Amino acid sequence: MVQGAAGSASSGRLGLSSLGSCLPSSCLSSGCYPSGFAGSGVWLCEGSFNGSEKETMQFLNDRLANYLEKVRQLERENAELESRIREWCECQIPYICPDYQSYFKTIEELQQKILLTKAENTRLLLQIDNAKLAADDFRTKYETELGLRQLVESDMNGLRRILDELTLCKADLEAQVESLKEELLCLKKNHEEEVNTLHCQLGDRLNVEVDAAPPVDLNKILDDMRCQYEALVENNRRDVEAWFNTQTEELNQQVVSSSEQLQCCQTEIIELRRTVNALEIELQAQHSMRNSLECTLEETEARYSSQLAQMQCLISNVEAQLAEIRCDLERQNQEYQLLLDVKARLESEIATYRCLLEGEDCKLPPHPCATECKPAGRVPYVSGMSCAPAP
């Protein structure tokens, strides 16, 4: 409808521009202009108005006929323009701003899924790292137990060697005892043979009595020696067993203390390694979270930047449209004021014409340009007017 108003205003300008052609030649030659543009209701010009009332009525009749014809023409043009504007508005598709809410919801759902997937990946990474730590712990324990087993096996091998040495020593002592027993038997046998030989030689011929000490009991002596050797062997065996037990206990104590220290050190190392791995995992999780948040921030900034650019573009378009509408309104207001001036002038002319027809005593100058031109103020410019004030 703005374009329709503009079309009507332009048609009104055409009607105003053609009014100048309805003036008499005397007015055109003397440089007159309508008084409606100067704020009065009569014609003002530089020349004089010469003629009768009949000529004035004829002039007003012609002007009224031209005015009515022009009004009908403007109405036809206005109706035609309104029909064109209506057809154009019906053909135009109204601009609908696309609704991105569904896309925003989909994007938010996808972002939530991405965050959940990242959290699940982080949890799986933590589980994998915990499994790795547990495997390292079991591997360390296995290596520790394997080292302890090797130490115990080496101790057992050393003890076996000592046992073999003691067994050999025992065998040597037993061999010595057997050799001494055999020597004792040989001595007894030789003694008996010698005694028998002497008895056989002497027989009953000689009876010798010897005042000597009682004979020595060799069996008793041998038994005593055997007891002494057995006691000595037993003492040696006990001493060796005591020394072996002492050395074994000391070695076991050293092994236990060393294993405890090693276990403590390994436990501390495992705890420190676990702490380091946990801190590294947490650092990686924080890095991944920071990267995801940075990506989300960049995506959000890009999305809102694009939305802001679209909004600014829409605002610029709306401001441009508002500026155009404001300019059109100002122009239409000016044209409306001009039309009001023309309407007032025409109404004054029609009133004058009515007064002349009714025969009232309306004194008019003898010619439309009889009075002196006195502009009452700034004369607005109307396009198409052929009359202008004389220099």
Keywords:
mainly alpha, 5 helices, 0% strand, rod-shaped, disordered N terminus, disordered C terminus, intermediate filament, Keratin 36
Explain the overall architecture.
It is built from five helices and no strands. The chain has two domains: 2-99 and 309-357, no CATH class; 133-277. Helix content is 78%, strand content 0%. The chain has helices at 2-19, 25-30, 53-91, 101-202, 218-357. It has 391 residues and is mainly alpha-helical. One of its GO terms (biological process) is intermediate filament organization. One of its GO terms (cellular component) is intermediate filament. GO terms for molecular function: structural constituent of skin epidermis. Keywords: Coiled coil, Intermediate filament, Keratin. Residues 53-364 form the IF rod domain.
Write the layout of secondary structure elements.
Blueprint: H1 2-19, H2 25-30, H3 53-91, H4 101-202, H5 218-357
Helix pairs in contact: 1-3, 1-5, 3-5, 4-5
- H/E order of the elements? HHHHH
Total beta strands:
0
Largest sheet: none
Number of helical stretches of at least 4 residues:
5
The rounded distance between the terminal residues' Cα atoms is 42 Å
The total number of structural domains is 2
Name the overall outline: rod-shaped
Give the amount of beta strand, in percent.
Answer: under 5%
Low-confidence stretches: 1-50, 360-391
Supply the helix-strand structural class: mainly alpha
Which radius of gyration do the C-alpha atoms yield?
A: 71 Å
| Helix fraction bin | over 70%
Mean pLDDT: 74
InterPro entries: IF_conserved (IPR018039), IF_rod_dom (IPR039008), Keratin_I (IPR002957)
GO molecular function: structural constituent of skin epidermis
Organism: Myotis myotis (Greater mouse-eared bat)
Coiled coil: 57-127, 163-201, 262-349
